[in-house]
Amino acid sequence: MEHLNFVLERYLPERRLFLRSEAGTRYVRLRPISQAVVLTVAAGYMTFSLVATAMLFYGLIGSADLREAALREQTYFETRLNEMAEQRDTALTEAQAAHLRYGEAMDRVAVMQGLVLEGEQRIMELEQGIDALQASFGAVMGERDAALARLDEVESGDANAELARVSQQLTEVEQTLDFLMGALGQTADERETMRALADSASQQTEFLALENRLIQDRNNRIFTTLETAVSTSMEPLEALFRNAGFEPQQIIEQVRSGYQASSASLMPISISTSGTMDPQSDEARANALLSTLADIDLYRIAAERTPYAMPIFGRMRLSSDFGSRSDPFGRGRRLHNGVDWAGLPLDTPVYAPGDGRVTFAGRRGSWGNLVIIEYDFGMETYFAHLNSINVTAGQRVSRGDRIAGIGTSGRSTGVHLHYEVRVNGSQINPLTYIRAAQNVF
Questions:
Q1: Tell me, what's the pLDDT at 69?
Q2: Share of the chain above pLDDT 90, in %
Q3: Which residues pair with 380 in a beta bridge?
Q4: Fewer CB in 10 Å around end: N or C, the chain?
């Protein structure tokens, strides 16, 4: 310690603080190490003050106008849904056009295949005709040879009548032979023509099959992109309700049962077919996408009808969380069924966190001035200790409508808002639902 005093004395020489009173004068020795401690404490306090002031300043800037930010995020989400719907409509239009082109191509393939079959049948008939002509040609050649032999015999026998008959027969055979040769050449030409038509039809069939495969590949890429985008949008919506304690499929069924008007663009594609549709076909994948988009639309409707938004905005603090706490009036530990926000001026606006109906607006016991709003799916929100009330029982309200101003009425220790969320009569932590919605919107 003495060594440390000796080192510090070069910078902080020992000082004496004189204290004068009626009884006399006394002094206090301030050694170098004591001065160093005092200076360190003072510097630390100033640093802490600067950091705390900066944090409060940045907190004030970051919390300003949170309601407008939430509305912008909601608008962005709805715009994104509309863009996805437009992309889906464009992709479906292209898929339907591709399906029509594929049907036309198949019709052309069927026609070409019919022509090929007819050509093959004609070729078979021509080949059979050629075989018959060749057989006839052989028989005629045999008759000619026999006639020539007979002619030689007649000439050697000097039989004029027989010679004339054989000459006539030979002339007829030569005429028949000329006709057969002409028919044979014509048949060969016709066979070659049919073979050329068959080859052309086969090439067109291969080209149409290749074009169909390219169309299928392109459609597959389009559907894969849309399926990924729809899945990415679906997962956070399901998490929103699941984190708040709801079963997503149950929410879908409840909204669907009360919302029968479906968008025409989300109706399934009706395909006339026999048997079961291939789950990998374009029609089946398009119907699956339309079904998922219809569910997203139902989730959007459900989100509009549930209180996921913050009811107040401004530089506030969470003065009491949900759960067990010490009673502020000294009655031991009690269950706090909601959350309390304080630090805001008297009569700061309170907004409806969702679309619903006011079931109570007035004064009620220790609640003080109280507003209760009822929503779909058995949900209610309570706003207690209010200073002013701007709604009446039975009134319909929309998200963002002003319903009251915070205060300190009823059993309260200061200006604050007591906020509760109930599902089928059971209290749940409001922050669980608000935070779940913040991850989506």
A1: 65
A2: 15
A3: 374, 422
A4: N
Q: Is 374 helix (H, G, I), strand (E, B) or coil?
A: strand
Using 50 as the pLDDT threshold, list the residues of the chain that sit under it.
Answer: 260-266, 271-272, 274-275
Number of alpha carbons in the 13 Å side-chain half-sphere of residue 64: 6
**CATH T-level topology, domain 312-438:** Glucose Permease (Domain IIA) (2.70.70)
218-273 residue pLDDT tens = 877 887 777 777 777 677 777 777 766 677 777 777 777 765 444 444 455 554 45
Instruction: Provide the pLDDT for residue 258.
Output: 64
Long-range contacts of 12-17 (CB under 8 A, 24+ apart): 12/36, 12/39
Query: What's the N-to-C CA distance of the chain in angstroms?
Result: 61
Chain-centroid distance, C-alpha 390: 39
User: Which residue do the tokens 């002619």 mark?
Assistant: 151
Instruction: DSSP for 274-334, please give it.
Output: SSPPPTTSHHHHHHHHHHHHHHHHHHHHHHHTS--S-S--SS-EEEE-SEEEE-TTS--EE
**Positions of E strands within 90-175:** none
CA angle 210, 214, 216 (to 5 degrees): 115
